[in-house]
Amino acid sequence: MSHLLEVQDLEVKFALRFGDITAIDGVSFTLDKGEKLGLVGESGAGKSVTGFSIINLLSKPGYISRGKIWFEKNEISSYSDAQMRKIRGDRISMIFQDPMMTLNPVFTIGFQMVETIQAHRKISKAGAQKIALEKLKKVHIPSPEQRLGQYPHELSGGMRQRIIIAISLLTDPAIIIADEPTTALDVTIQAEIMDLLQELCETDNMALILITHDLGVVSQVTEKIAVMYAGKIIEYGSTDQVVKHPVHPYTEGLIKSIPGTVIKPGEDLVQIPGMMPTLTNIPPGCAFNPRCYLKDDICMTKTPELKDAGNSVLAACHMK
Amino acid sequence: MNEDNTILSINNVVKHFDISGGFLDQLRFKKGKIYLEKTTVKAVNDVSLFIKKGETLSVVGESGCGKSTLARVVLGLYPPNSGEVYYSGKRIDNLNHEQMLPFRKKMQMIFQDPYASLNPRKTVQQTLEEPLRFHHPEMSTSEINDKIDKVMEQVGVDQAWIKRYPHEFSGGQRQRISIARGLILDPEFIVADEPVSALDVSIQAQILNLLMKAGRERDLTYLFITHDLSVVRHISTRVAVMYLGTLCELAKAEDLFAKPQHPYTKALLSAIPVVGEKRAKHIKLKGEVPTPVNLPSGCVFHGRCVYANNRCVQEIPVLLTLDNGTRVACHAVEENRIKS
Amino acid sequence: MTKFQKFKESYFLYSFKRDKVAIASFIVLVILIILALTAPWIAPMNPYDAHNIDIMDSEIPPMWSDQGESRFILGTDNMGRDMLSTMLYGLRTSILIAVGAVFLQATIGILVGLTAGYIGGKTDAILMRIADIQFSFPYLMLAIFISAIFQAIYGIGSYERLAVPLLIVIIGLAEWPMYARTIRASVIGEVGKEYVEAARVIGLSRPTIMIRHVLPNSLTSLMVISTIQFANAVMSEAALSFLGMGMPVTKPSLGSLIQAGFDFIFSGSWWITIFPGIWLVLFVLVVNLLGDWLRDVLNPKLYKG
Lengths: 320, 340, 305
Prior knowledge:
The complex is a heterotrimer. Chain A is of the alpha/beta class. Chain A contains eleven helices and twelve strands. The longest helix of chain A is centred in the middle third of the chain and has 18 residues, at 187-204. The relative contact order of chain A is 0.14. Helices cover 32% and strands 23% of the residues of chain B. By secondary structure, chain B is an alpha/beta fold. The interface between A and B is large, with 44 and 44 residues.
């Protein structure tokens, strides 16, 4: 087991009033030191839930019902909450879409950074402040000394996201899980934040799990990609290969439906008919079958497994 | 200004919002003096453009650039502080509620958030029949139902669902219903404010195709507001780029994407992540976007522009027309200082 | 799907069935309301009719006490009225006044709140300052003031006849700012939404948008506040009656009953005060409990499929 992180056959269920529903159904992937993985899918595909379950941050009705997660050779899926807290926010950090989810509006940036370090390390306040300053410099924040005394509302959205990244770096984590880190930001700022994340991974040999719906962003930043649909990974492999030669009809449709990829301006875009099923009524067989142009009888009854589709890409499709 | 096929023209529109609040909020104390200070957001500053019949004009820009405000000024939802809006040659920005009604039939809007743009307490039927009953009181119930059926079919929503409430639909279906409401009065001109930004990728394509199809079949003119440049490239005839309430560049879509002129447009285009391309060298802008409360002097972009000089700090650039018809407001372009 | 089926599958019913407190409160409330409304038919006697009252029956303790009589299950008051009947009639009067008062509050409050919230600006400022001023008057002061004017105009004689409408007006006028504030806040929240802009693009007039689009979406907060205001109105009526500014002793509401019994509590006739007291507390409690539950259920922030 030489991987930094290994998720094996993860299944997450939500206990709702009409019974359990499966949000994540048998998801497996690995992550090595310094590797950048993109988890891509539309809303409801289960990509955020996957991210949350790695650090055991599932909110109430959700629970891990099957599968194992190894991190640095330890099985963290069986950890207690207290054990998990030592890893979460320390060895594995998380960045959310909305910076204000992490930042407390009533405390200064400096206070929150010092607090985070002291929660994980025995260190003096002055020492913690030094680390905070160093990390702020690392995320290229102009006049970092001044920022320590500022409140979150005094900063712009892009600046806040930089602060969040700096906070996630405080404990020198091995993995950063970034859940739609740039969705709320403008394109020019998005490009800067993505540059920053990529640069950090390269200089510190940090691993990144980038959760996003934006295939463009993923293909620029990551080396590996996992495309999710209705709680399953349906295609998994090197980003270059998957994006240029998608195997699964869903991945293919997703890429072609983006304006500017294959269709000339003004012409009709390739569209995937219908929409993703809700988790309560996933069709039998392949969950994608009602929208698929390749479907055959077997797709209606048998659920496809991820299998080798050549060029070190795995795809879950009977027809390929 | 009355070019033959111009459907809408906007002349020198300015829209500022007073956000200073009550009397007590305006009180300031400085250097031993108490005085009142008003805070205004300068959302749109002196913007002029026109839209030709049948074309799709996209207004792009980042959040806070005033594109949505401009859309609402066009539709008379916000009265402009100064400037005029003409529709088919008639001035509409100074009309009262009754005088505006004939234009309401011709100009409709599609909104960004399909969860907020439909009244949660009205069924699809109620939502769609309201505009008809209001503008065409002479129509019989069966005529109205026929019309609703037709539009529902056109936007691809099952007619059997007409008695349902918005929360029973997915985001994409709601956006279809919202488009149906926009089309039901048979308008000529539609303002679409980020109509696909809130939708998933695979649904975006469906909605864009639907909008383009409706545009062709009904000979619609679109004013398309968006921040998504790949969408813009796909659907637009011409593109207007806005920054901090000011128009920086207005060009045919193919010209803009092939040869952007304004330094801001260049930076914007370089930042779009393209599927299948490794990290492209995007142009880094310096500094932060200033707030529209305190606009920079001169060219609003000068603080972030690598080509800025003294003239840019002092003098507001005017739109100049280049050989290919592109209009751009930049001193550096005028002086030929940009090497590309 | 029929309305009934939809209701059966709704989150509303689901959360109701899971909440024992809500179910118990609802059952008690329904029983109390039925008892109150059917009082003329089920009560052993009509306490408002002087012919039925015999002063010789006064201050008889409940039937399980030594001197109790089986005719008067909960005993009689100082005027010889059957306690149980008087309590049933009293609750009926209390509910009648509270419903009327809440209706009046809601009408004024919605009108003011809608206007203030939708028009905004100076209209908003003026209306809400009026509401603030109204709120800073204790309703007791208002009550004394109005009854004084009333008695000066009509004389004390007609007070007994007109006490119910008078109390409705007093409590209604005292509490409308609660409605106005709630509606205004909710309207301001709704007006910013895109569906209101869509209605404006269609060309609907302001009053139409307010009544047809905005108001229906403010109904949830209206429902929640109505339960609270209803409980408050029952309490206010009881308090006013207790202080002698409410229902006359001849037509007692719960408040005036408690007050009447208060004079005798030290002479040992505890039941005249205690029973109506428990009756009142029980009623207000179940209304408040249901209101609490309703607020949780209807709060969109807590609502999760």
